[in-house]
Amino acid sequence: MAEQQTDQQPLYEARRSIFPRSVKGRFRNIKWAILAFAYGVYFLLPWMRWERAAGPDQAVLFDLVGRKFYLFGLTVYPQDIFWLAGFLMLAAYLLFFVTGIAGRVFCGYFCFQTLWTDVFVLVERLVQGERPARIRLAKQPMNGEKVLKLGLTHLLWLLVAFATGLSFVLYWGNAPDLILDFFTGQAPFAAYGTTLFLTATTYVMAGHAREQVCTYMCPYSRFQSAMFDKDTLVVSYDSKRGEGSAGRARLGKGRKSQEERQAAGVGDCIDCGYCVQVCPTGIDIRNGLQIQCISCALCIDACDTIMDSLGWERGLVAYTSERQAEEGRRARLLRPKVLGYFLVLLIIVAALAWNVSHQQLFDLSVAQERQPLYVTLSDGRIQNSYEFKMNNKTGGPLQLEFEIVGLEGAELDLGNFSHIELAPDQRLRLRAHIKYAPQAVESGSKQFSVRAVPVNREDLQPFEKGAVFSWPAKN
Amino acid sequence: MSENTQQQQSGAVQTTGHAWDGDLQEFNNPLPRWWVWTFYATIVFSLVYWVIFPTWPYANTYTKGVANTITFKNDQGEDVTTHWNTRSLLIEEMQTGEEALKQKAYLQKVNAASYDEILSDPDMMAFTESTAKVLFADNCAACHGPGAALPSSAFGLYPNLADDAWLWGGKLEDIEATLQKGRKGYMPAFGSTLSEEQLDQVASYVLSLSMEGVDAEKVAAGKEIFNGQAGGCHYCHTKEATGLKSQGSANLTDAIWTVANVPSAPTAEAKLVAIKQVIRNGINRVMPAWSGRLSDDEIKQLAIYVHQRGGGK
Fold it and tell me: What is the CATH number of domain A362-470?
């Protein structure tokens, strides 16, 4: 029972470098298209202009200091923050919905880590050459060529990272002014700090950390297995076809055409290793689905390229499902999980759309003062005090007049502010006194409402807010 | 039971080397090196932090931090330098911070504005409401109650500032004078100069000024005492019984009672008892003068605040 000492493996290891080879194909094209679209939106959107009656002329601007988020024609105020909650719910359920159907396609096609790593690898390839050249460069000692190529690569990486960080900052201020201030040293410290931070993180994450983000840091990769089922599309190697009965074999004597190979019991996989060379996370898909696989389908493109060149059928590595692989039946799309998520998505979208389109453009809040709850006036009437808070989100000037509804003969006293004029986006706090002589039959409190009437806007409905008037129970 | 198997595939992940139940083994994936070095970096960071900031207690004191001091101005205008601590940080930020300076500037603007200007500007009014609310709570609420009106359990101790009856004048200038100079609210005790019957009659007259159905005979007799030499009430309260601002005497004809608890008294008899009590014992209340204790600006804000509670004139 004595335990043999095995070779102690080190507890920690350095990252094994990955040199992905380039590949052409359907999925590579889709990835480039999505990348171009995403980059176009991200880098160009801050520059888009939008005419507004009051406020900046930038289409998308998150004005933190002014506490307003401008999204094209919509202005989001702090009290609308629950729209963000709705939007986040929408994003989450959309992710679960897509993942249930097509697996980790978010990772492989849209995740920012993937997009920026793709661009950084592209830069590497343009400067240092294709995979064999890059491997050779990595192995050779530090000489003039290596310094130049690595230096240029990292410089270009830093430029892209800087552009990324700066573009992010441009969303939080007026882009033309902010970029001018930035380069003349007049921007606020937050602009420089954020740009520096994002430049550093982009450079480190896309240039150095790369697939380690997916493997070690990202929580999504860990709980993806909870979202998959037998019908989920995953990247898979058809091992029956590829291995045959005798295993895979390289092209060689007696192993050239498909008939020869099938006669020998050898599978269609020619062990060229192309699928391993293109993988950005450095796995071998022929070993089966692994946690590092981000479903980018570059290995599919690689194998298809080889199959095309041999004139054999595509699909040795392909998007398929467990159900397809094990039972030979097509993956079911309309299953309860998918339908359920779709229904939830519809509800959230509908709720958000309705809520945003029915945004109240001005509102009034009425808070009764509790200490004291009521005061007896010299003429015997009772007085209650309230705090009126009003808000103008109409985008133009707003004139308000107030009425009391539900208290017979009540008098509203607003001091010097009987007629209110609100500038666009202006908020106001006022103290209001209401004087009222309660009828003998009424009990100690009465519900009523304050009506705010927009006198300069025919198209807006008056806004009513309920409140309570209190007096001592025995008059 | 347990067997030992070696799993050695070149390039593949090794196992721990132990096998349970014949073939149950455990992978031994190595952790990334950057992860460990990041951990070491956090240890180095904490060591540096311990040196710079106040951290470790020893003997009867503690390490104060190196090259990390805060300087602020004390009340005499001199510079004071302390080791880093949050109290000093607060004082310094209140003196030099961007937001603190903005608040100071706005405060100066409000203090320079006239009463009319402030009352017509919603922003300045909201600002005054906020600052004076704290001043009131710190200085005035102890006597006058948190909302400038005492609850019914403390009825009659100090004037109600939220109604529209003012003993000493309800205009802003009057309120400011009250705050600056203080007031003496004095009503003589008539218990020794008036008989019980006379007290009853005067109380009836006073009650009749704001309530119907009091005994007409008593009321007539009481009026005589009120307006004549026997009581002399009219000297302070005037013949119309509406009160004199200069004396701080109450308006007896309105619906407000602030010393005699007439509203809570269930019957007319009980109300008379309450009123008689006040006439018998008199009133002796003092409003302190605040001119030394609060700055002129603070008094100005409090004046507006009190004026706005419900009944400013």
Answer: 2.60.40.10
